[in-house]
Write a structure and sequence with these properties.
The structure holds 3 protein chains of 3 kinds. Chain A is α/β, with parallel strands linked by helices. Chain A contains 10 helices and 10 strands. Helices cover 74% and strands 1% of the residues of chain C. Chain C has a two-stranded antiparallel sheet with strand order 1-2. Chain C is mostly helical.
Chain lengths: 250, 402, 294
């Protein structure tokens, strides 16, 4: 049983095709890295899993994306509930203009949870999960903007965890962070794998090698190669993958 | 030689540009100087018209009297001297035109040559008289006593509830009704405009499709471009009769009419500024909210509005500022009664409307003229305060964000 | 753990959103409706009044008949006069602020003062114009005094739009020119200004629209109640469209009889504003495309 399955997925911005016939199957509790040069469609592809591209006018998708066996683009699918199940972490830390506590509680509140006890519990667990609790437990009522960039990004991860998703999408989550914060986030990804299925877009080869179990290489809207990370990095079947990974282009 | 010429002309042009750069600053400074020089002059003036005196019998113990007291005496609201600190005798009023009640035409003389003497005798003979007459009829060894009249005081000016700048014998310059009128009308305007304006701003920036927005935007700009006198005219022929009929009033020119027109006029300011602020909300922040399963509406009121709250506040404050400073439209629809407003269905008068309505008839450099400039000063200070508040609100927000 | 019924929650969220969006849509459309009510009212009432005679003839019979020719001419004179003053100074001030002064105290002060000037109500400009130009400098009620007053009022508008146009010019153009040995002024004149020019003109047109409708600043500096002849010099009084509309709708001898004239005058004012807005938008679009194509 796969967690995510993508079958013959094409995607269009207006008349230009951004993704061509993408087929991928992702097992639960794994980390999948999407790599490729910028503009290759990896971010666009990631954003299909929680229907984030719906927000852009004039886009079209064909093919199927199944999560837990259900087609998420089928008619009558509730997008809000889908997004509750599929959390997302963005390129730059983007906390809300609210307190640290309220940032994490946000997803619970908008999903109809109002019980104070449940909210407090979940906020605490989530912040502990991202190993931020000791740093912020005394200033939960302070603005989230007061945190450092790395702390903000971990807070954003906690925010995504609070609504108990089963999948977490990460769109270059460390590209705006310093090396120390980056390694903290990477450790975190490694630990989160036990509970969640993670798909991460990254342009950092080493990062993909360090954190992921499987890797998909995209080039110009096409999926060139998809395999175990180890195979991709040591013994790719396709020359273009090899060239990219060894830094000959991109 | 050529390089020298080039250098010189470069310097010359830079000087010229710099000079132009200082024009706005210079203008603001000049406005302040002229406005306040004339405006503060009002506190150097006496409320009684120049060239006139107020006199009482020499045995009357009163020495000084305020302008409000003079007015109340002549309006017969004060009828006994003890009310102004004298004996409990009733006051005898005397105006110049009353002279024939006391003296015959012969005594006064054909060309009023006997008048000064008559006045002198009258004031001397009636112990409880108060007389108001031109200074030129004051004889040298006048047997009565001229009352000292205080200059206009700050407290009287700001606390006075009556604005009768041309009243005889003593002008009443209380700006309270004008300030209250301005605030009432502006407050009403903003109460009407805020919900409409904010809704339109939210709709344009977050809800409407791009093509709808592309149509609405120039329409809002057009709304901003319509001259205020046209708004006033529209109010006069449509809103005013409508209000009169709806509320069954004697006149439709009311504070409410002013509020409605000013509300419409404040709309573009509120919409444009708060829409800008909302559109500046980072896309990533909206996406983060949606990615957590929030609906678009939840995202708007939980993320977009809080994020852009300072811009929205700035829009609202500037909208109030526009309403407070607006002249023509208000002048045309509010009825311009300079009394303390009790309800929005009564005529009121605002500061700008007062200046516009009265400056034409105020004699240059006189008390009334200076009083109107003082109103200009108040208006200037209010709008300055509003501008600084807006700057404070928006700058504080910048610190907050990064 | 999850006590919440997914479907019920989703439905309620959808319903709330639908209600909210409808309210917002209705309120926004009513803003547009207000505009259309005002415009259509004045157009419908005024269109039958406007004809060649209305535009080209003197007012007659206590302004209840005849045309508004002198008011149109007066407004034209005031617009021309105020722009002759405000446009060059405003553009130069903006050039100084954007091209010459470095960020610092002086720039801050100029900017602050320009903002303050923009925030001053128009009636205060009227007071100032009266005490400085009419009385102190002895111009009397005249086109000169009125133009200068209106010019001061328009100055911040011109400065702001020009500054924005200059800011929109990419720095690479300046660097390229300076790199070729051109002086600062040469760079500004030959490179920056031509690129910014269309936007500057757009600003000029918008300020013309604004100035032609202003009433409060001209009340005591130029406007004549009734003057059935054209001004012959800048020291003459003049009629003006907005003031004309004001007097015939509030204080004429025959308010009811002169109503049609008032509608006509209001329509002429609206048309001026409309043309200014359309022209500015068209220019923006036309040049916007052209710049992109290059």
């Amino acid at each position: 049983m796969y967690k995510i399955e993508s079958k013959n997925v094409d995607f269009f911005y207006g008349s230009s095709q951004a993704l061509k016939n993408i087929n991928i199957a992702i097992k639960p509790n794994t980390v999948t890295a999407l790599i490729g040069p910028s503009g290759c469609g990896k971010s666009t592809y990631l954003r299909l899993f929680n229907r984030m591209n719906d927000l852009i006018d004039n886009t079209k998708i064909s093919g199927q994306i199944l999560i837990d066996g259900d087609d998420i683009y089928a008619k009558g699918v509730n997008v809000d509930s889908l997004r509750k199940k599929v959390g997302m972490v963005f390129q730059k830390p983007n906390p809300f203009p609210k307190t640290i506590f309220e940032n994490v509680a946000y997803g619970l509140r908008v999903n109809g949870i109002s019980d104070k006890k449940i909210i407090e519990e979940r906020v605490e667990t989530s912040i502990k999960q991202v190993v931020l609790w000791d740093e912020v437990k005394d200033k939960l009522k302070k603005s989230a903007f007061e945190l450092s960039g790395g702390q903000q990004q971990r807070l954003c991860i906690a925010r995504a965890l609070a609504i108990q998703p089963s999948i977490i999408l990460m769109d270059e989550p460390t590209s705006a962070l310093d090396p120390i914060s980056t390694s903290k986030v990477e450790e975190l990804i490694y630990e989160l794998k036990t509970k969640y299925t993670i798909v991460i877009v990254t342009h950092n080869m080493q990062q993909a090698g360090r954190v992921s179990d499987t890797t998909a290489f995209f080039y110009m809207g096409e999926l060139i190669e998809y395999d175990n990370t180890k195979t991709i990095f040591t013994n790719p079947k396709i020359e273009r993958t090899q060239n990219y990974i060894t830094g000959r282009f991109g | 030689m050529k390089t020298f010429y080039k250098k010189f002309s470069e310097k010359f042009i830079e000087g010229l540009l710099m000079l132009s750069g200082t024009v706005t600053s210079l203008t603001v400074i000049l406005i302040v100087i002229f406005l306040f020089k004339e405006g503060l002059g009002v506190f150097d003036k006496k409320p009684v018209e120049e060239g006139y005196v107020i006199a009482i019998n020499k045995n009357n113990a009163i020495r000084k009297i305020t302008s409000a007291e003079i007015k109340n005496i002549y309006d017969q609201k004060i009828t006994h001297w003890n009310e102004v600190g004298g004996k409990p005798d009733s006051i005898v009023l005397f105006r110049l035109e009353d002279i024939s009640n006391f003296y015959s035409d012969d005594e006064i003389g054909e060309n009023f040559e006997g008048l000064p003497n008559c006045i002198n005798r009258l004031v001397d003979s009636l112990p409880n008289i108060i007389a108001f007459f031109p200074e030129k009829y004051l004889i040298k060894d006048f047997k009565g006593k001229q009352l000292e009249i205080d200059k206009i005081k700050l407290a009287e000016f700001f606390g006075g509830k009556e604005w009768l700048p041309t009243a005889q014998p003593s002008a009443q310059l209380g700006v309270l009704p004008l300030i209250m009128g301005t605030l009432w009308v502006s407050l009403g305007a903003i109460l009407l405009a805020l919900p409409l304006g904010l809704a339109a701003a939210v709709y344009m920036s977050e809800i409407a499709k791009d093509n709808v927005r592309r149509i609405m935007k120039p329409l809002i700009e057009l709304l901003a471009g319509i001259p205020s006198v046209v708004y006033g005219f529209f109010g006069l022929v449509i809103i005013v009769p409508l209000i009169q009929k709806t509320f069954n009033l004697p006149v439709g020119e009311t504070g409410l009419a002013g509020s409605i027109i000013l509300g419409i006029m404040a709309l573009p300011t509120i919409i444009t500024i708060s829409e800008d602020a909302m559109r500046n909300t980072p896309r990533a922040m909206k996406e983060a909210s949606l990615a957590l399963g929030a609906s678009k509406w939840q995202t708007i009121y939980k993320v977009v509005v809080p994020y852009s709250i300072s811009g929205i506040t700035a829009g609202a404050i500037l909208g109030i500022g526009r309403a407070i400073g607006e002249t023509m439209a208000v002048l045309m629809v509010t009825g311009n009664a300079a009394v303390m407003p009790h309800s929005i269905l009564e005529p009121v008068r605002t500061i700008p409307a007062t200046i516009a309505a009265e400056l034409g008839e105020a004699s240059n450099g006189g008390l009334h003229y200076k009083a109107l400039f003082a109103l200009g000063c108040i208006l200037f200070l209010i709008t300055l305060f509003i501008n600084l508040t807006v700057e404070f609100v928006t700058s504080r927000n910048k610190h907050n964000k990064h | 753990m999850d006590v919440i019924d997914e479907n019920k929650l989703a439905k309620s969220k959808k319903r709330k959103q639908a209600i909210a969006f409808w309210i917002f849509r209705i309120l926004s459309y009513s803003v547009v409706a207000i505009l259309f009510i005002i415009l259509s009212f004045i157009v419908i009432k005024g269109i039958s009044v406007i004809n060649w005679n209305f535009i080209s003839q003197m007012p007659e019979e206590g302004m209840t008949k005849g045309g508004i020719y002198p008011a149109i001419i007066g407004t034209l004179c005031l617009v021309a006069g105020s722009m002759l003053f405000a446009f060059p100074i405003g553009v130069m001030a903006a050039i100084y602020m954007n091209e010459y002064v470095k960020a610092g105290l002086i720039k801050k002060i100029i900017k602050q003062m320009t903002n303050n000037l923009a925030g001053i109500p128009s009636i205060v400009f009227g007071l100032f114009g009266m005490s400085l130009f009419v009385n102190k400098l002895g111009f009397g009620d005249s086109i000169l005094a009125g133009s200068l007053t209106l010019g001061l009022l328009a100055l911040p508008v011109v400065i702001r739009t020009t500054e924005e146009s200059l800011k929109a010019v990419e720095d690479t153009f300046r660097q390229a020119s300076l790199g070729l040995g051109a002086s600062k002024w040469e760079t500004t004149r030959k490179v920056v200004l031509p690129i910014a020019f269309p936007n500057i003109i757009t600003g000029l047109i918008l300020s013309i629209g604004r100035v032609s409708g202003e009433t409060a600043p001209i009340l005591f500096t130029v406007a004549a109640y009734f003057l059935p002849k054209l001004p012959t010099s800048i020291f003459d009084q003049a009629m003006a469209l907005p003031y004309h509309l004001y007097v015939i709708s509030t204080s004429g001898t025959n308010i009811e009889e002169s109503r049609p004239i008032a509608y006509g005058t209001a329509l002429v004012l609206i048309i001026i504003v409309l043309i200014a807005n359309l022209l500015a938008n068209a220019l923006r679009k036309y040049f916007g495309k052209k710049v992109k194509m290059n």
